[in-house]
Amino acid sequence: MFNEGSKYVALKHQDHYFVGADNGIFSLLFDQEPDEVVELNIMQDLKYLHFPLVDIFVKAAILLAKGGRMRDIGVPADSIEERMLLHPVIEKDIIRGSVIYIDTFCNVITNITKDLFTRVQRNRDFTLYFRKSETISQLSWHYNEVPEGEKLCLFGISNHLEIAINKGKASGLLGLHLNDIVRVEFH
What we know:
Elements: E1 8-13, E2 16-21, H1 25-29, E3 36-40, H2 53-65, E4 74-76, E5 89-90, E6 94-102, E7 108-113, H3 114-121, E8 126-130, E9 134-136, E10 151-155, E11 160-165, H4 170-174, E12 181-186
Antiparallel strand pairs: 1-2, 1-3, 3-4, 5-6, 6-7, 6-12, 7-11, 8-9, 8-12, 10-11
């Protein structure tokens, strides 16, 4: 059984499969509608009632990885939950963006895409400003490129600019919340 109010989905987008809660995150990650969506109908094991990630999501992912079909794990769905994505504001040497998602590790995801950042950056240095004059002036490739407890920014799996803390909870420690403004200045 599913927790009341929860809707879990699997979707296929550009020959990749995704499994998760239908909470609007997929609409923020993709520029277009997914190729196929199913609402999962996998029976949840009662011993994992509070942990769908450990049970339902894993079962769905394993079946798909073994070549299973979407209809084997769910019923077709017409759409996914959508969230409005506010577009960043671009000025000559500045991108003003906002926080659009905070993941389960408390990493802060902005609406600034890697493509937009690169296009405006034009190989110049930058400073990322956020909350109470906090700044970051270097992109990282991995979370562990900075000492433990230090802040960093990188382009995560979603290709959106993320603000994180190595082995820390960036949103809480840096005071960042949904819809907060971030600013990237190029010089």
